[in-house]
Design a protein that fits this description.
Blueprint: E1 10-12, E2 15-17, E3 21-23, H1 38-47, E4 53-60, H2 78-93, E5 98-103, E6 122-123, E7 127-129, E8 132-133, E9 136-137, H3 140-160, E10 164-168, H4 174-179, H5 195-198, H6 200-213, E11 218-224, H7 239-252, E12 256-260, H8 276-284, E13 288-291, H9 300-304, H10 315-323, E14 328-331, H11 333-336, H12 341-346
Parallel strand pairs: 3-4, 3-14, 4-5, 5-10, 6-9, 10-11, 11-12, 12-13, 13-14
Antiparallel strand pairs: 1-2, 7-8
Helix pairs in contact: 1-2, 3-6, 7-8
Length: 365
């Protein structure tokens, strides 16, 4: 297995990366009151010398019900932003690059702790799953304020010195809820019968973010076909439908598509072995990031339900990266439990690679 392609530098706009490996965004819930602690900064600092780019855990924008978890970090407010300044300064001090992932959860199940946000959860039509109410439908004023809040968060990423920004538009959270016909039943300009029509909210978020950071700052958009509420959902069922969905984002200001799959090796459409990231790059011409069970035998949803995963070979990943299907590779659980995973891969110390168990979620290793 020739690892050269995995360790080639990558440069695009504000990004100057030493290798093609990205630390994937993974919710940790170690920021009480929304404020990242020194322990959170240390967690990221330990990985900064290893990876090309760190994408932070999801960090929420300034809306009353943007989060269902009191320990999810905020990307607004003096204390939280001071915490993030500590994080990025530590990452840069060890030679790393980092992008925060800015996020609004939309309507999701209540947190297991019983904590509730100070306002009802909000989404396009009030549904948490098709036909089941879980919150309130956003007014056009709510939508406008949310778009502005994404823009403000993006401006803060640049002010604090981050290297890029990622918008979370995947996994059944707010932006993705607008894409999904099952929960977006709106009759105004933010709904519609087609996926491009239902993408209007997300396009306006991208434009607000691009306006806030300028043309030279890299903007990443994370997307998925599947939803946490329903793994079988497919927003785009053909390459033509995917092109009609993704190309307007490229035109609006997305530089890099971060294409979430549960298993990166699965083809997106019949007749080709290209995965989601491969199709995104082919259709838009923009760089893409692949993700989904890289380096491990099991997929990550099962991990949250207690299933362990063993280290898995990277041969198929390297084959696709070398072929040019995608540009960057996001690694999640393997790196969550082992900050030295990259070094072990590069140096061939495969016998030292660790299994992933659910217990790793309970600590900041």
């Amino acid at each position: 297995m020739n690892l050269d392609t995995l360790f080639r530098p990558f440069a695009y706009k504000s990004l100057r990366l030493k290798n093609r490996i990205v630390m994937a965004p993974m919710t940790r819930s170690f920021s009480p009151g929304g404020v990242p602690t020194p322990e959170v900064a240390s967690y990221y600092r330990r990985r900064a010398p290893e990876v090309g780019l760190i994408i932070s855990e999801g960090t929420v924008i300034d809306r009353p019900a943007s989060s269902n978890d009191p320990a999810i970090p905020h990307f607004y407010g003096e204390q939280a932003l001071a915490g993030w300044k500590h994080v990025i300064d530590d990452v840069h001090a060890t030679g790393g690059a980092m992008a925060p992932q800015i996020w609004h959860m939309g309507i999701v199940a209540p947190h297991a702790s019983g904590w509730r946000p100070p306002a009802p959860m909000e989404g396009p039509s009030g549904f948490v799953v098709p036909g089941e109410a879980g919150g309130v439908a956003m007014s056009e004023s709510d939508i406008a304020d949310t778009i502005a809040a994404f823009g403000r968060a993006a401006a803060e990423t640049k002010r604090l010195g981050f290297d890029a920004v990622e918008i979370h538009g995947a996994h059944g959270y707010l932006i993705d809820q607008f894409f999904w016909a099952g929960v977006n039943r709106r009759q105004d300009r933010y709904g519609g019968a087609t996926l491009p029509e239902r993408s209007r909210f997300a396009i306006e978020v991208v434009r607000a973010v691009r306006s806030a950071v300028g043309e030279d700052f890299a903007v990443i958009l994370r997307l998925s076909q599947w939803k946490q509420q329903d793994f079988a959902v497919k927003l785009a069922r053909t390459p033509d439908e995917m092109a009609a969905w993704l190309n307007p984002f490229a035109e609006a200001g997305v530089d890099i598509f971060h294409c979430s799959q549960r298993r990166f090796w699965q083809p997106e459409f019949e007749g080709s072995d290209l995965n989601f990231a491969g199709w995104a790059k082919k259709l838009t011409g923009r760089p893409s990031i692949t993700v989904g069970s890289v380096g491990l035998s099991g997929e990550f949803i099962a991990a949250f339900q207690g299933e362990s995963s063993r280290p898995d070979p990277l041969d198929e990943l390297i084959r696709r990266l070398t072929r040019g299907d995608f540009d960057l590779v996001a690694v999640g659980r393997a790196m969550l439990s082992d900050p030295h995973w990259v070094s072990k891969i590069r140096e061939g110390r495969h016998e030292q690679l660790k299994d992933f168990t659910r217990e790793a979620l309970a600590t900041l290793t």
